[in-house]
Amino acid sequence: MKNLLRRFHREDDGTTAVEFALVAMLFLTFVFGLFELGHLYWTWNTLQFAVDKTTRYVIVNTDLTDQEIQEYAADNMPGLDVSASNPTVTVEHETVSGVEFVVVTAAFEYNSLSGFFPDNIGTLTLDARSRMAIE
Q: Based on C-alpha coordinates, what's the Rg of the chain?
């Protein structure tokens, strides 16, 4: 038995595979994390762009209803998985010191691109807000 253990102790076959398994797991976690972070930022940027574009559209078209404004915002989110309940777009009208403002807010429930993160960590809600004066 002692000779058998010595023989296995001297063998180094398979060490490369073990080292690769340890390093590859960390490397792939890093790479998928970068993809996921990029997708998250792209989603938030698309949401913010749509909200900003909508407030500029309202400045030019002041006779729009809140429903039309919400539909316009949802239509300007290319590439996002837009459904009836996601994103949630709200429109508010404020008057401050005699100046009327329109505030468009959108909330979008982010879903993981790769499924790399477990579902039990909860949903991530991205928020975007734009406020401009209507003259």
A: 26
